[in-house]
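Quick one, tokens below:
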């Protein structure tokens, strides 16, 4: 009887250890996912002439490129709302939403797309087959660019603190400072899903 009790106790201890180990491993995986930035953009230092977006020649122009089915991007759009609210009304803002050529119109109209359309003054553009993403050298959803009135790149990167997490961070603060005519670092890691795979860019 005593032997059986020892076996049961040992089995429970082993099961508990396995459970704790599994939870710890899962936490580390989630933490690594949240804190690992996406691929940085290869952004042109001057406004890309190939772009179909109309740059503001009298004030800064902000461009955020997103994948409509990336849940992490909801946080980027929440931060963009804060940027818009604290920037001059002359700031021209584009949210460029990726849609692969093989998908029908409407594929991109997710909750991410809807959130973008609700941003004050933002112009939501559907990016057929990622053409604009290519012009701006973008790989990661949530990638944000701020060009000044002369068309010079002043900021590139993300505006969230982690993947899928909204809240005050240096990226958002940097964009707000630069949009208001102050100096800033000009870059911040971008956290989000891949917009266009390398094979699709060929």
């Amino acid at each position: 009887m005593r032997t059986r009790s020892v076996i049961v106790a040992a089995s429970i201890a082993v099961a508990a250890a396995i459970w704790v180990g599994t939870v710890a491993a899962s936490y580390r995986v989630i933490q690594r996912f949240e804190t690992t930035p996406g691929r940085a953009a290869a952004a042109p230092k001057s406004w890309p002439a190939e772009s179909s977006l109309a740059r503001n020649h009298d004030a800064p122009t902000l461009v955020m490129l997103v994948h409509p089915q990336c849940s992490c991007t909801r946080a980027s759009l929440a931060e963009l709302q804060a940027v818009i609210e604290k920037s001059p009304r002359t700031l021209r803002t584009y949210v460029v939403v990726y849609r692969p050529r093989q998908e029908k119109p409407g594929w991109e109209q997710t909750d991410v797309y809807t959130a973008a359309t609700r941003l004050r003054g933002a112009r939501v553009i559907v990016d057929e087959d990622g053409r604009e993403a290519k012009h701006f050298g973008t790989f990661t959803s949530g990638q944000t660019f701020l060009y000044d009135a002369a068309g010079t790149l002043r900021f590139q990167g993300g505006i969230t603190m982690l993947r899928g997490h909204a809240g005050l961070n240096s990226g958002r603060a940097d964009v707000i400072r630069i949009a208001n005519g102050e100096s800033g670092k000009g870059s911040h890691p971008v956290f989000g899903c891949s917009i266009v795979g390398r094979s699709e860019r060929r």
